[in-house]
Amino acid sequence: MTTAATAATARIPHPHEITLREAQENVRLAMVQKGKIPRCPCCGQPAKRYRRLLNSNMAEALVRIKQEHDRHPEQEWIDVPHLLKNTPRRWSNGEWGGDYAKLRYWGLLEQATGLRADGSNRNGSWKITLLGIRFARGEVRVASHAFDFNGECLGLDDFEVINIRGVHNFNYEELIQS
Question: In principle, which of 94, 97, 109, 161 could form an S-S bond with 103, CB 3.0–4.6 Å?
């Protein structure tokens, strides 16, 4: 087929048609506009980003992970669900939830790669980062909130920065002395 024939038969996209990548970018841009909840042009679902607070559950989990790291410095990865299950606040009561996993948004924890036997990437193995260690010691401040969409961090809201003692409803001294 000649170039002229190929050009004549090539489909010209409708002006309202966009690629999936363009649709994703349009939704991301619309999500950052205050008060707007855009709809996905592909499926019509609302696309809402959440402003997640670094909360007391996260702070306590981070301190407990740091304590475990201090007890076993040779052990790079920690089975966090197992660690938290054996704390005074019982995992089985639903008190812990999965908030600790969001600490990765702040760069305080890193999740191990690899899959469980059932194919899930939620293998439970995490390591505390240098920033996480320093935050758990009270040496540095981080943003109080992160923006979350579909399990992914879209960035930090650094309007307010806090140290671990500034985490809402978290008593650092009480936890350290227990």
Answer: 109
Give the other-Cβ count within 10 Å of 146's Cβ: 22
Distances (CA, A) of 159 to 57, 146, 155, 162, 166: 22, 11, 12, 10, 14
Beta bridge partners of 152: 149
Task: Give the pLDDT score at 126.
Answer: 94
Domain count of the fold of the chain: 2
**What is the domain extent for residue 16?**
11-48
Q: What is the rounded CA–CA span in Å between residue 110 and residue 122? A: 12
DSSP 66: H
| Whether residue 16 is found in the same domain as residue 27 | yes
Tell whether 35 and 71 lie within a shared domain: no
Quote the CA–CA distance of 165 and 56 in Å, as a whole number: 10
Share of the chain above pLDDT 90, in %: 48
On whether both 38 and 118 belong to a single domain, the answer is no
Residues 57 and 41 in one domain: no
Question: The tokens of 95 are what?
Answer: 């008190």
Task: Dump pLDDT digits (tens) for 22-50.
Answer: 887 888 888 777 777 888 888 888 888 88
Encode pLDDT of 121-145 as tens digits: 778 899 999 999 999 999 999 999 9
The first and second tokens of residue 92, run together, are 């089985």
